Each structure stands twice: as structure tokens, then as C-alpha cells.
């Protein structure tokens, strides 16, 4: 299935999270998340190479030890925390901070055997070997 992402109008993008999430689900079919309180949803890129999938989760400013990663069948669950980089009065805050989580439906079957995760330069790179056919 081809994926077409619709860029929401500027005003629509500023809606509160409870209103924004259902609209994003309507417009972007591959956007999976968990119904959680005040979490934000990091962007995800998935790349397929002959022997594996690479899942890249963008979470700049997160701490290396803040991640929880689970594989359940064709779903990858990523949870973590991104704290504010500076303490003090906030005058403008456009970035997303606090707890985050993402449930990612994988396009092909994978195995946890040989899976690896590396976090560097704000990107969590997860290597998932494909399941043998």
C-alpha cells in the first residue's frame, strides 16, 4: 500500500494533543501509537535491506538509558523520556519533551535473535533481522 502523508494546515497542527492524534490517524494510515496520557510521539523511519530492517527513531536530547524497547510479533514498542535541556523560565517551547512512546507495525516478519539497538546523535537505530521463510 502506498503511503501518502498529508501535511496538516498550520492552525490544525497547533491543536491540543487529544484532538490532534485522532486527526493524524485519519490522515496517515501507517501512524501507530498507544493511547497514553501526555506522551509525545517521535518520528520513525523504516528501511529494508536484504537481510533485515533498520528502524530509526528520532529523539534528540533523550538519554541513552531512558529507552524501553520490546518486540512483539510484527510490532515494535519504543518508550523513553526526553527531558528539558535547561532549567528555568520558558518563553518559547516548540519541541516535545517528557515521556514518549511509539508502537510501530513492521512491514515484514522479524526475529529478536541478533537484534541490536544503538543510540547516538539523537537517533535510536534498531537493527531487526528478518525471520527466515
Plain-language structure description:
- There is one protein chain.
- The chain has helices at residues 10-13, 17-27, and strands at 44-49, 52-58, 68-72, 75-82, 98-105, 116-120, 123-129.
- With 133 residues, it is mostly beta strands.
- The chain has a domain at 31-85 and 96-129: Immunoglobulin-like.
- The strands form 2 sheets. It has a 4-stranded antiparallel sheet with strand order 1-2-7-6, with no helix packed on it. Strands 3-4-5 form a 3-stranded antiparallel sheet, with no helix packed on it.
- It is elongated and about 55 Å long.
- It starts with 9 loop residues before the first helix and ends with a strand.
Please specify the SSE layout and strand pairing.
Elements: H1 10-13, H2 17-27, E1 44-49, E2 52-58, E3 68-72, E4 75-82, E5 98-105, E6 116-120, E7 123-129
Antiparallel strand pairs: 1-2, 2-7, 3-4, 4-5, 6-7
List keywords for this structure.
mainly beta, disordered N terminus, elongated, 2 helices, 133 residues, 7 strands, 35% strand, 11% helix, single chain, 3-stranded antiparallel β-sheet, Immunoglobulin-like
In short:
The chain is mainly beta and 133 residues long. 11% of the residues lie in helices and 35% in strands.
* CATH fold description of one domain: Immunoglobulin-like
Report the portion of residues in β strands: 25-35%
How are the strands of the biggest sheet laid out side by side? 1-2-7-6
Give the helix level as a range of percent.
10-25%
Give the total of beta strands: 7
Class from secondary-structure proportions: mainly beta
The CATH class label of one domain is: Mainly Beta
Low-confidence stretches: 1-15, 28-36
Mean pLDDT: 80
CATH-level-2 architecture of one domain: Sandwich
Dominant shape: elongated
